[in-house]
Amino acid sequence: MPEIEQAAENTALFGKYELGRVLGCGAFAKVYYARNVQTGQSVAVKIINKKKLAGTGLAGNVKREISIMSRLHHPNIVRLHEVLATKTKIFFIMDFVRGGELFAKISKGRFSEDLSRRYFQQLISAVGYCHSHGVFHRDLKPENLLLDENGDLKVSDFGLSAVRDQIRPDGLLHTLCGTPAYVAPEILTKKGYDGTKVDVWSCGVVLFVLAAGYLPFNDSNLMVMYKKIYKGEFRCPRWMSPELRRFLAKLLDTNPETRITVDGMTRDPWFKKGYKKTKFHEGYGSGSKGGDGDERLVNLNAFDIISFSSGLDLSGLFGQFGGGERLMTREAPEKVLEAAEEGAATAGMAVRWKKECGVELEGLNGNFGIGIKVYRLTAELVVVEVRKRGGDCVAFRNVWDRKLKPLLLGGGATTPYGSDQKEQQCESQVAGD
């Protein structure tokens, strides 16, 4: 058995994930079922092809999706475990949600009102959480809602999501996006919109589909359908209860100013029935954030993490890291900086401490300098970033390679994600994507 496990590790993606069947395909990405060979955990791996992405203007969407998913930790949202990368591909390691898309279930027939309410309550719990964290999904639909093995709903696909930073001075978002049948009427006016309001509208369309089995606004002619959306022309089927009809009218209110809010929903008689507020720790699914100190030192976002791949060139998408090197260690930041200070003393360099957990080292003859910063990656791992601060490259390499680096490596530091050989192995495994 150990030999079999070792063989699996040798062929696994990054020596860690054994790829299985394809779960879904898109223009720029494929999603695979995978198994963590070290823990046996099932995961989904979304593989984005950077070459196909190039020139589309969608690189920003990928960055934003990583940033957004890394900050959201809620039981009804698909969790991003980690992001890995090679020269041509980016890998999202996410929850594997066994039940598949809600769309596949509803395509077989409408749900009962009670089941529709249960799924809707879970959807609103997730959407309300996103809004409280400054995230607006903007593409809520049954295809982006998954069901786990317990029949609980999970929101996925944050590729079109927006964050508060994108709000213009008028207080509104202006990017036109979403799936036609689910877009709010104010998006059609092209005058700007409130991200929370358009998500509520899309949730209303989702609820109608769950309880009716078909779309409230639909037509083979796209312009005719948009006209129905703009005017709010829909008709509830006879089997819907009066309470649900009234609730849908509040959700599908064409005026965003009077449209019901997430808080308002929790007070509605139809919504409140059997409702139990989702309880979870804010750090659900995430590691410890450490103790006191500069938040920036404790939490690195996913852009930082994937750019720490020595030899895995992401410069075309995520920016360059020139003139330096990054190492990973389990030593505390204070210990790393003490080691750097000790190494500087042996190299005859002046030390100047920086407020942001770093030091500047300068040759006594002023011919070159070295900047060292330390970031806490997780509760256990620390990243050491080293840059040359001008001057003589040969002198820098001599001091760094012969004196400072060995001192840090003596504390168990490594270059993240292994060797170029492992990178080439990963590239060959997914070369057909």
Automatic annotation (TrEMBL):
So where does ATP get bound? Answer: 46
Single GO BP term:
signal transduction
Q: Which Pfam families match?
A: NAF (PF03822), Pkinase (PF00069)
Enumerate the spans annotated as NAF domain.
Answer: 295-319
Reaction equations catalysed: L-threonyl-[protein] + ATP = O-phospho-L-threonyl-[protein] + ADP + H(+); L-seryl-[protein] + ATP = O-phospho-L-seryl-[protein] + ADP + H(+)
Example of a GO MF term: protein serine/threonine kinase activity
SMART domains in the record, alphabetically? S_TKc
Residues forming the Protein kinase domain are 17-271
Give the cofactors, semicolon-separated.
Answer: Mn(2+)
User: What's the family?
Assistant: Belongs to the protein kinase superfamily. CAMK Ser/Thr protein kinase family. SNF1 subfamily.
**PANTHER family for this protein:** CALCIUM/CALMODULIN-DEPENDENT PROTEIN KINASE KINASE-RELATED, NON-SPECIFIC SERINE_THREONINE PROTEIN KINASE
Q: What is this protein called?
A: non-specific serine/threonine protein kinase
Look up and give the organism this protein is from.
Answer: Clitoria ternatea
